[in-house]
Design goal:
mainly alpha; Glycosyltransferase; two-stranded antiparallel sheet
């Protein structure tokens, strides 16, 4: 499947670099009105005759359907309580099965699905799990199963689940929550779903273990243990952020390495954060592929455990045993390589320095979400969490303010749920409830003031909006809706 830069050549470059649209994602999501070859041919004539920005914009408007507001008729009724608002939004964010359009970047999905909202007009991989948490509370199990079937379709078609269903995302995945989705569906339909989706689970695992492509996700440690990192298959500028990447390129001698690290950070879902910066401050110091992320390895532990369970249900004791052994080895490796004994927190691992990375992030709670640490680790972790991450509006993402969106002072719905569930798993329901309360109250406060549920929130000063990032904060918003609804059902608000 060709990408927009391959299809549209100089037109693509000119639209993106001249910033004909403020957001580079706009053009790559445009739908052509006729064949790409004819559009490109006509543009070359225009380029020679009138290369002005106004002429280029007019040309694009004549030759493409430009994406806009997907729900122009929807208006929030502030008389609705937030639960009614969320349940009304499911239909606003739902997309029907797609019809193929030649020249479009959209990868057609065979079943309906939920998009995040705003500029995100396609399904996003890891967003979808947290959206499903709320869909389950709304009894939208058919939608959940449709979305899982879409992801299985992508795995069987491409060998993995892309970042989103766009051609320009086909060089990377996102945090592998597919096995968590199966686990969620099993609570409704029973464990037979593990058998149904075993081929897809196995194929996704093969992708992350470099058996489908030479993706270089695998890192073998000196003692022979295998861990994983994020690693995009491409080292070109991102098409959906072309201007930003080309601007950054001027500051480095190794553009390919820069692009690879930027793309790998997008695969992590944390795009962007000082977590990935060698100096904790600047983009140009990005080193994503030099880090082994603790949360990714926890997800792969869950994937290995899920595959083992599926083989066991299939009465395949050999393969079940192999995967139980893989999960056990990874569990030991997580506690060996990522645990900071001094403060009781988990960290990413720096490959080149062969030691823990120094950035403190909320990702360090993830092992508790997957029940990986021993029970006696929790008290030290709780003290560290309360001292560093628990804020008035919820859990802050990192302790550094880089003006990147995945850093201080911002909090994000998926990380709140991971933290809440992690604390609850280890018997600290008191702190879990407090965090749930603070996050829910912030979400509701913003909703009452604006009629919106946002992509991210400022958890330090709850009177300010969240900032940072390559684009304005989006509303909608799939995973915020899902996590908030889950919280309100699991942890009813205090009076």
């Amino acid at each position: 499947m060709q990408t927009p830069d391959e299809l549209y050549g100089n037109l693509f470059k000119d639209v993106q670099l001249k910033r004909i649209f403020p957001d580079n994602k706009t053009f790559v999501d445009c739908i052509p009105k006729r064949k790409a070859e004819a559009i490109v041919s006509d543009y070359e004539h225009l380029k020679n005759d009138d290369p002005s920005n106004e002429a280029i914009l007019k040309f694009v408007e004549e030759n493409f359907i430009i994406p806009g507001d997907d729900a122009p008729g929807y208006h929030t009724d502030l008389k609705d309580n937030v639960i009614e608002h969320i349940e009304a939004l499911w239909n606003v964010l739902k997309r029907s099965a797609d019809k193929p359009v030649e020249g479009s970047s959209l990868i057609p999905m065979p079943y309906p699905y939920i998009v995040p909202g705003g500029r995100f007009r396609e399904v996003f991989y890891w967003d979808s799990y947290f959206t499903m948490l709320g869909l389950a509370e709304s009894n939208e199990w058919e939608t959940i199963e449709n979305m899982i079937d879409n992801f299985a379709f992508l795995i069987h078609k491409f060998g993995f689940i892309p970042n989103g269903n766009r051609s320009y995302f086909l060089s990377r995945s996102q945090p592998p929550y597919f096995s968590c989705m199966i686990e969620l569906l099993a609570t409704h339909t029973g464990d037979e779903v593990y058998k149904k989706y075993l081929p897809a689970l196995q194929k996704e695992y093969d992708y992350w273990m470099d058996k489908t492509y030479t993706t270089k996700h695998v890192v073998q440690m000196n003692d022979g243990l295998v861990l994983n990192r994020y690693y995009d298959q491409s080292d070109k500028a991102r098409e959906e952020s072309y201007w930003q990447d080309e601007t950054l390129r001027k500051e480095t001698k190794d553009a390919s390495l820069l692009y690879r690290n930027l793309r790998a950070a997008c695969e992590s879902g944390w795009d962007f954060s000082g977590r990935w910066f060698e100096d904790g401050k600047t983009f140009i110091a990005i080193q994503t592929i030099n880090l082994i992320p603790v949360d990714l390895n926890c997800l792969l532990y869950h994937l290995e455990s899920s595959i083992a369970k599926a083989y066991q249900l299939n009465n395949d004791s050999k393969n079940a045993g192999d995967f139980f052994d893989k999960a056990s080895a990874r569990k030991n490796a997580i506690n060996q390589y990522f645990y900071g004994e001094n403060d009781g927190w988990y960290y990413d691992y720096n490959i080149s320095e062969q030691k823990l990375n120094n950035q403190k992030t909320i990702a360090g709670i993830t092992p508790f979400f997957f029940n990986i640490p021993p029970q006696d680790y929790i008290e030290k972790a709780v003290k560290f969490f309360e001292k560093n991450f628990l804020k008035d509006g919820g859990a802050v993402t990192t302790l550094i303010n880089t003006e990147q969106q995945w850093d201080w002072p911002n909090g994000w719905a998926p990380l709140q749920w991971i933290t809440i569930k992690a604390l609850d798993n280890y018997g600290r329901k008191d702190i879990a409830e407090e965090l749930a309360h603070r996050w829910a109250m912030l979400n509701i406060k913003v909703y009452r003031n604006t009629g919106k549920l946002m992509e991210k929130y400022n958890v330090i000063d709850t009177n300010l909006t969240a900032g940072g990032g390559e684009y304005p904060s989006q509303d909608g918003f799939g995973w915020t809706n899902g996590v908030l609804l889950k919280i309100l059902k699991a942890y009813p608000l205090k009076s």
